[in-house]
Amino acid sequence: MFLNHISQVTPNQHRIKTDVLVRFPHALKKSVISQILNYLLECSNLDNLIPSTFHMKWFLEVTGQAFALPIEEHQIISVALKIYDSWILGLNLPSVFDQKKNFFYQEIFGHLSLIFEQRKNLTKELCKKHIELCQAVISIFNRIKSKDKDFLSSDSWTYLLNILLGITDSFLRDEGTIIEPFLTKKLSVHMLKILFEIWLISETQDLRSWELLGTLAKDWIHRKCTIIQWSSTTFGLLNRVISILYGSFEGTNAVTISLPSPPNTTFKPSVINITDEKVIFSWEKMLNILGNPNDFTSPKNFYLAMKGIRDIVTLLLRVGNKQDYRKTNETLILSDHPDGNSIIKIFGRWPIEAVFKNKSGFDEGTSVAYSILCDIFTSHQRSHFLEEYLYKFYSFIVYSFENEKDFPEAVCSIINNTETIFMTKLKGLFVLIPYYLKIINKILLNNEPTFKITAPFSSLRRSALLILKTLIPLPNHFNDVNIPEIDGYSRENIQNFQFISTIRTAIINGFAKEIDPENAKIFFWNMSYLLLATINRQSTVVPLIILTLQKFICAPTEIQEKWPTDVIIAALTTLRSFTSLVDEINDCSTQTLPNLITGLSRVIKIHITNLPKNWKQNEFDSVIIEIINLICDFVCEGQWIFLYPNTVNEILQAIGEIVNAKKKPTETKKERKKKDEDKLTITSRVKFIAQITWFKILRIAGNFPLSPGLSNFSTLITEEKIMKKIGFKKNEFMDYIRFYLFGNDKIFTIIEYPFKDETDKKYKTYIIIRDLIGRYSWTFTFQGLPLENKTKIYEPNNKKKSIRDLQLNSITKKNNNGQDQDQDQDQDQEKNKNNLTKKKELEIEFDYQSENIDFFQKEIENKIQSIESLINLQKEIENNDQTLKEITNEEINNKNESKNQNKDDDDEGSDFGNSLRPKQINREDKDFKFNESRLLLSNFGLLSISDKKQIHSLNNCDELLFTLKKLDKCSERLCHSIGVIYIDEGQNRCYNGEGIFENKHGNEDYEDFIRQIGWIINLKKHNGYNGKLDWVKTGKYASYFSNYNTEVIFKVATLLKTEDIELKKQILGSCFIVIVWCNDERHFNPKCIKFNKNRIFFIIKPHPTGLFTVTIEDYTGVVHNSGPLMNNSFLNKSTLINLVRITAINCNYQLYLKNKISVEPYKIRAGVIKEIKRNFLLKLNYDEFYSYLFSGLQKEVLDEKSQFIDDESSKSDFSDLSIGERKYLKKTFSDSSDSRRSNSEYSKNKNNLSNKFHYSEGTDKSDITDFSENYSYNSENKSENDKDSQNKNQTKKDSEIRNINIKLEKIDATKKKIKK
């Protein structure tokens, strides 16, 4: 007993009628059934009630009659459902049930089908009850899925499948003929789901059953749910088949069927476990169960069928990409990926037929058919397709493009699904280039499509742009493209096709028609591709691209407000990618860059005076800052800007207006809630960036790189190195050094060099300047002589004029016969000077000229006795010890040097005033300190009383030196660490990536890439950022890149000379950006090296054409807005290197911002300088300040004057700093106010300070050493024995000095006698 329709469509037939209640009146039948069922439900022991199989059959007959009752008797039907539900679950079954279990279950299945019988003239309430009862039956069938296959015999499974097949057919046939329409609408999806799932669980291989299913299913194809159920079931089976054929890392471990849930219902994925053999058999049968989709009469269902086929094909195309590494003990049945020709043979027959037929009204499904073919040919690059298939595919494309008005959906589908077609290795592919360029120009050069399309036109333009980016490198790479002739387009026409002009027109003119923000960004990045590819070949393209970008950025404010600010920033980012090409751009056009910089400067002034109304404050700040940074990048790149003074003037005016802009008045909290708060203003953040840019332009432009190299942004000279050179003792150094704070952002260290330099024999003053930009050093020398002095200068202090000299002057004047003309006087003076300079430089000098011998004869005779006494004194001096001789020689040499460093008096009266000259200052007097430095500051005007507020003294203590060293360790440029991995052929399948990290070198292209993306440095000698690489553990060499604003260390796996694989993984895993050079054809999966997913991978693969493909695996979501490199790019080597490096740096910076770990170097340095002011500023009045310049102050006084400043005005405002920057400053200056007051306390806490210091990514912890490691200023670090030995040595030195002073006094007395 079952639904009559089942016997009409299936082999199941009604048995001999044994219905004992069929002729009973309805009331009596209802009463009997109700009482019997209620008793059965309540009876706990059915063995006594049902002792034999005959009794069991009778009870089943009675229960089955309940399902044939009208819906009004739904309570009785519900009781019958509860009894059957418990029996199917095996609960409260009589023992006789097992004797004929399969027969009884067949009877139960048939009885359950009666609930679906059509019942007419039901009210709404009864319709709801009928639906509920049907859903209860479906739930009972659903419980069978949890049973084992042995739950029923094969015949019983077949009987059940026929029951379900008949019920489902009654639902899905023409509406209203068998089942009520409301049941069909509500329950069709559920019945199909139960039918297909139980069909698979039964593992039936009965060909008649499968044939019957296919026959009936063809009558269901007008139902949408049928197509969806078929595609989902086929997809789940194929997923399991893939796992069986290609390994457990592919597909699924069981058949998993996921259906879209109908309204008010949630379908969980159904997991079905069947044997592998039955899975493959069922998949092949299920695939063809609906027949050929091209025979469908419904366009919507044809579209759904093609969509399901596309999902299945996509699943096959991904094999080998999901997991490309295997366990060593796993074997594969087939190769590691399905062949593309096999995919076309199995699935491609339906899309190919759909494309050829191109039935009217089926455009949407035909479009999907095109996409299936495009996916097969473009995604499966490892297959060598048959020429037959390639010919058909190319023919479809050419024919559709040539007749785009007749096949608009086909054109859209081809464009949308072949974005990477020219990156493939398809044979004869470049024959399509002219056709693609023609259709792309038609799409991009029009505001509206020239043919009817259903998809958004902006999406079509975006796909056209992505295809265009892969065509840009081809014209420069292939001089002559050998293309076979095709009907309608000859080889000659293709070879003469103007690639560059066509691409340039599509990009430049197409951008003028663009209104979509996302497409505008792709236009900009395509411009960067085109400029980099043609800069050395097409000089006219470069100025045109820059001019286009300039016009967009410099457009009036009303036009710019129509675009989102991220589009404007994308244009600025594109221009920033050209900053390293300044020389090449100037070679193309000398006026391009000056006009650009001038235009950008004027944009700043326009925005300041006419603030945009529709922008938010943060958007306005971002645009202004990007413009300022762009200007700075171009200006600091070489010295070209100095050839254009007008441009320099425009730059300085624009930045000056920002710096001098009025501050926004303070507002209360209530006022901030008003609309006036939305008005734009020049924020402190913008002013700070402008101030930094001002510093950079004045200090870096034309002066970078410095002489030490690109890795050094600041001078290498420090106080530490100057102390080494001078050789100061610990107690002497602080007397010759002063620290000053100038303004609020500069720290001057002035060091007096109290000895003559060994090279140029001059006294010097060293100045070390620290500010927001970096550290600079200057050496000053007081110069009193001309730069070139060929004549010897007479030293008046050491050589007095004798009486003979005065007499000589008078005799010479008398011989001039009274002539007092100016010319004669000049000649006399010149002669006197020449006579003086010709004298021999001895301690006692006499002039033995022949005409004056008589005059001096008498003088000489009178002094003979004195001379003899002097000779005896000289012999006594020569008998002194060796120390006295050295001192004498040194004294004489110093006096001889002083002769050559002083000018002779030119005035006429000097001949008579030598005896009145003051004694020359002894600059080496130890009591005469900080003299040269004081003069230098005074000459600079820094010591004037009016400017006293600008310069402040800092406490010159050990703690300040230690803090300044921390300031020097603060990064001066943005620092980035980028990993580089090399994967050789076949290594992409390595489990855990061991083989990848064992590579010692790569192929030639890879090695060139490493050498050109940066330059190889020796980490042992490197002074710049090293990314925490320890050359002892990881090897000496790394790849490094830097400019005035950025430092990048490339952590190259092949350069890490260590056998520790885990160490390599740790080093490379610390990088947010990883560049993967992959020589393997398989898709790279980051899981093969076990990196975290929070990374960005740039995957580079060589192409047979000599070009390179770049794909980006982004697990962070920042690549989309970073640019200029786009995913799936096709580039030559030079363009590849530039774009990968620029984009990697941009992405890394965006990740810093996203993760809130950004450390802006200038903000950090500003914060450190503010904290130095707060901790070490001396509160000196005028008298103390100027006295400090002459005599210095005692340490106790300095500590007293250096009280910790804790007032509100001195506190640093760190509101603009990021979380990472505030942590940096907090850790840098933790406990600094307590540790700075005494040397002993500082010595105890210096290790704690070092440990608390926050190391940014640009700081190598191993480089930071205590300032006192080389110069110990604290006597507490020395043992008592050292102190005793020092005291003994000091006593001995004091004794020697006293002896030397006594001998010097004797020498001075001897000199006085000689001079007399």
From TrEMBL:
<feature type="compositionally biased region" description="Polar residues">
    <location>
        <begin position="1241"/>
        <end position="1253"/>
    </location>
</feature>
<dbReference type="Pfam" id="PF02145">
    <property type="entry name" value="Rap_GAP"/>
</dbReference>
<feature type="compositionally biased region" description="Basic and acidic residues">
    <location>
        <begin position="890"/>
        <end position="903"/>
    </location>
</feature>
<feature type="domain" description="Rap-GAP">
    <location>
        <begin position="964"/>
        <end position="1172"/>
    </location>
</feature>
<feature type="compositionally biased region" description="Basic and acidic residues">
    <location>
        <begin position="1277"/>
        <end position="1297"/>
    </location>
</feature>
<feature type="compositionally biased region" description="Basic and acidic residues">
    <location>
        <begin position="1254"/>
        <end position="1264"/>
    </location>
</feature>
<feature type="region of interest" description="Disordered">
    <location>
        <begin position="890"/>
        <end position="918"/>
    </location>
</feature>
<dbReference type="InterPro" id="IPR039930">
    <property type="entry name" value="RALGAPB"/>
</dbReference>
<dbReference type="Pfam" id="PF20412">
    <property type="entry name" value="RALGAPB_N"/>
</dbReference>
<feature type="region of interest" description="Disordered">
    <location>
        <begin position="1230"/>
        <end position="1297"/>
    </location>
</feature>
<feature type="compositionally biased region" description="Basic and acidic residues">
    <location>
        <begin position="828"/>
        <end position="838"/>
    </location>
</feature>
<dbReference type="InterPro" id="IPR000331">
    <property type="entry name" value="Rap/Ran_GAP_dom"/>
</dbReference>
<dbReference type="InterPro" id="IPR035974">
    <property type="entry name" value="Rap/Ran-GAP_sf"/>
</dbReference>
<protein>
    <recommendedName>
        <fullName>Rap-GAP domain-containing protein</fullName>
    </recommendedName>
</protein>
<feature type="region of interest" description="Disordered">
    <location>
        <begin position="813"/>
        <end position="838"/>
    </location>
</feature>
<keyword id="KW-0343">GTPase activation</keyword>
<dbReference type="InterPro" id="IPR046859">
    <property type="entry name" value="RGPA/RALGAPB_N"/>
</dbReference>
